[in-house]
Structure formats: C-alpha cells, structure tokens
Amino acid sequence: MSEGEVFPVPAAWAKRAKMNAQAYEAAVARVETDPDGYWTDVAGRLDWIAPFTQVKDTSFHKHPFHIRWYADGVLNVSVNCLDRHLDTRGDQVAIIWESDEGTPWDNLTYRQLHAETCRMANVLKARGVQKGDRVTIYLPMIPQAAVAMLACARIGAVHSVIFGGFSPDSIAGRIQDCDSRIVITADEGLRGGKTVPLKRNVDEALEQCPGVTDVIVVRRTRADVPMKAGRDAFYSDLKQGVADTCEPEPMNAEDPLFILYTSGSTGKPKGVLHTTGGYLVWAAHTHELVFDYKPGEVFWCTADVGWVTGHSYVVYGPLANAATTVMFEGVPNYPTNSRFWEVIDKHKVNTFYTAPTAIRALMRDGDEPVLKTSRKSLRLLGTVGEPINPEAWLWYHRVVGDGRCPIVDTYWQTETGACLASPLPGATALKPGSCAKPLPGIKFELVDAEGQVLHGATSGNLVITDSWPGQMRSVYGDHQRFFDTYFSTYAGKYFTGDGCRRDEDGYYWITGRVDDVINVSGHRLGTAEIESALVSNENVAEAAVVGFPHDIKGQGVYCFVTLKADVVPTDILQAELKGWVRREIGPFAAPDVVQFAPGLPKTRSGKIMRRILRKIAENDLSNLGDISTLADPSVVDDLVKNRIGS
Ligand code: 6R9
To answer: Rounded distance, CA 10 to CA 428, Å?
Structure first.
C-alpha cells in the first residue's frame, strides 16, 4: 500500500477555492467561539419566506429525542431550487439527462424544470395530495424523478423514493410503513440495455397495500403495461391542460421533507426522516464547499436518486446552487466500458463523483478505455459510499484525472443528510484512502467499546458529539428506535456504526461498519434482512449472513444456511436460494455464496457467533479464536471443511 504518499494542495486550487487551509482553520475555530453566528451565516445561502430567530436547539441527551434547527424559519425547498434562479439563470440548463441509449431527450433549463415541477405539483394536488401526505416515488433515472421530488416539496408532501432495484416485497414494506396512498412510477426502466419492470413490480407490491388509491405512471419505454381502472393513470394524460405555475407551500424549517429507507443492523429498514430547512442548508453548503462548485460548471454525480447520494448531490444540493447537474440513466460498462469518460467529454463535465466499486470494476479493464477519451473538462473527482483502497485511488487520480484533479473522498451516511468529512480541494493535502478531516461544525470523536474517549493517533468507534443542520430528525413513526439505534450505545453521542482510525496528522480513515451492516458495491444491506428473506423460504430452517472482502464489490454476501430436516442440499437449491433473495429484496442483494451447514456455531444461550462465521467467510481460519464456549464446537469443523472458496 502506498499509504505514505501525500498529494499537496495544487497552488491554483488554493487560490481559486472558496475555502483554503487558513479559512478552514478559521471556520473550525469560529464554530467553537460563535456557533450561532457561524450557523446563521451558513443558512443565509437560502431564501427564507420568514427568517429564523432561533438557530439551534439540539441535545443528544434529551429523551424523547429533540433536535431543532432554524426552528421558526419558513421556506420552500422548490423555491430555493428553482424560482429564485429564474431571473438570472432561467435559460441555463438545470438537468442534463443522459439516457441509457445515449440519445439526449430531455435537457431541462431552470425555466422548464420549474414549469414541469409546477405541473406535477398541480397533478398531485388534483389527486388529493395535501401537505404532510407521503408520496412514494419508484422511478428510473429520468428527469421526472427530480420533478416528482421537487413537486412534493412544492406542496409540502413528504416523498419516499424507492430505488428501482428493489423488489415488490421491499416496495410494499416501505409503502405500508409510511402509509402512503399514492405512487409515482414508470412503465419500465432501462439500464444497460435491459428493461426493469417497474410498473409490474408496483402492481405486485400493491396486492399487499390496499390503502394505495392512485398510481401515476410516467412513460419511459412505452411498453404496454396493465392499468387498473380507477387507480392507475398515465402522467402524460394527467398533465394535459394543467397550469405550469403553482403557489409554493410555506413550510416550517422542521416540517418533514422526505423519508428514505435504509438498512440497519436489526429488523426491517428504517425510514430516515429529514426536514426542510436544515437538510437543504447542509446539502447546498456542502455541495459548494466540498466540490468548490462555481456557477456555470457542470456537475455529475453518478448515484441513483433512490439513494441518499442522489437526493443530495444529483437533485437538492446542485439545484439549490443553480448548478447544471447531470442525470445518468445507464451503467458504467454499457455499451462499452468507456461510457463514463465519453459522457464526461460529451457534456464537458467539470466535477465527477462516483463510488469506489465502479472505479475498481473499470480499473480491471485497464487504462486504454479511459485514455481514448479527452477528459480535459475535468477539474475535480470525488468518491463516496465505502472506503477506497489506495490502489484504486491512485488509478483514479493518475489515469482518469491525468494526475491533475484532486480527489475528494467524502464520508457520510443516509442519516447525516450530506457530507460529514472530506478533503477540501483548496485546503487539504490528500492521502489516498482517507476522508481527511471533518467539515467545519462536525465534531468527531473516537471511543472504545466502553465509551472511553481515545486521543491522538488511534483506532476506535466513530461518534459525533454535536448536531449539524443536515442530521436526520427521527425514524419515521418510531422515535424510540431513533434513540435506541443512534444514541444509546454511547450516552449523549451519535454513533455512526463505523470503525475508524485517526493518524498522527489528525486524518480519519474509515475502516468499515462495526455492526451487522454490510456494504455491497456501496449499497447498504442489513445481514438481518437477508437472513429473514432466507428463512421465509420453505426449505430453510435457519440462516446467518456475513460479509467477506470482494475485489470489486468491496464486500460480498456470504450465507450459511441450515435446511429443514427432510430437505436434501443440492446445487439447484443453492441457486434457487440466491434467486430467492434477489426476488425478496432486490437484485443488488443477491448472495455471492450459499453454504449449507448442518448447524451454526452458537453459544450455550443460543446466540449465533458471527465472529466465527466472518472468519470462515474471510478464509482467515487460523484466527477463529476461542470456540470452547460454543454449545457444540464440532459444527465448526464442518463449516471449515465445506467452506466455499470465493
Ligand atoms: C452516503 C452513503 C453509509 C455508510 C457509512 C460507511 C460507508 C460512506 C464512505 C464510507 C468509507 C467513505 N461510507 N462513505 N466509508 N469512506 N467515503 O454512502 O450513505 O448508503 O447510508 O452508507 O457507507 O460505512 O456508514 P449510506
């Protein structure tokens, strides 16, 4: 590993950037001495209908939980992302849409995006949607996805976007959890030349959701899809003759903006709740700061809007900053593995932001597919979603960025709304694989298992000791779960669930989840979710799922499965169970390995010892540790003997 290598801030960057090294230090100091002043200035970037007089009222100790930012301020998110840009930037492109096929179909200027958003908002109102109602969005990466989100924001509805890779069961669970009675979807999605049966998935999900009264279907492929009379309607029909202006709903800063479901270490996915003022402040502020965004530049974040990265850095952050944002429907290797780089040249992209898993996959194909493109427009690169190994970082820097583009390795979570830690291109020397330092206002601490604070160069669990505007406010409908998940492990501190090392220069190196969450291709999966999918199969008695290191995906999914007594373990059943998880959760959750096990290693009290299973999956067999406390130590021999090489 070239861990020692440090890349200093290029002189030109120190000069052009909004924040250089001194300014960073000054901002960090000001948050300490004048927090209200600092956070007031940060929020000044938005247009407020009624200005706030209270800045923050946050405590990580109170119970039930209570976090308020800019609490008496009034604003509307869609106005901040659209209306306020119309005078000066109405004809600037807001969204460049790059379709799967590569034939642009819908570049939208700010004026057009505003009109489309108002139309969709009026359609929603006509269907009876009111302030506070939850609207489920299950769309491919087409501009209507951003339009639907902004339309909800305009009328004060709360959106819940579901990634197009989720299965009917996963959709149903999310619709039921937030009690949403309206779904916006498309006939089909299109990715890498393959269609995704979105409407069919919704139809199947809705068999379990009698409360849904309206399904709005956007036409993407124009495939023939069944339409249920009285419930389903095509958006193209509904929007006929609908006005392209819509009065924005004045929203309190703490009114909910969206719910986004994410996996945790236990139970079903949690509805992470974000509110209006603080979220938008943080998304817009970090988009400008971390990417040093300057007006007129083209910004491309490759994430799907079904994940938080798409919410904050395809839609809300860039649009609040009047940026030109690229929305890409396709995949990195279709039609060829030069696709990313060709799109960069085609749209003169200045900042490119993607996941390490994509970089690792493309790196495997060598330099040639990159080098045959120009990439002259690029000035900054970014990564997000998982730790990046120094080899991939160095390739990204040398080959994709021609050695001249800084890389911002941004660490954050669905729960944190937007970036927490990242190098700043004009302020921070880069160390490949490190997310450098927390942004001004973010207070990191490393603690040991007992909660003792660790100082200096050390490793521990990463906690945050004070609030920031973009922090989630609750788990939708379950304050207790919010408190238990994030604030009960270490009293008075937000626990990220991540392990982390701090080096002698104060740089942070995220080492990965320390809970039962695994990170597969930058997608978060709870092992408990996969286990409950497996045991819902009639052949399965018990299952335990762990992650293992995977060259491309970062982590792979390794399942240990005990079959019911009369079931014969066969290769066919193994393949069937992989397909089963795909269908139950979604294709991205498909197991890499299913190993049949006559028994799982359990303590005498019946707890599965995952530590041992992890070691077996990792093929770290000399480190199984003490197995003498197991109820039946002999099961380990069988697990080791039948380990499936990956
Ligand atoms: C934005 C996003 C969050 C988890 C997080 C951590 C991992 C994200 C990272 C990173 C190392 C980075 N993670 N960014 N690990 N370096 N730059 O990914 O949100 O899907 O909620 O995942 O992803 O483990 O806790 P989310």
So the answer is: 10
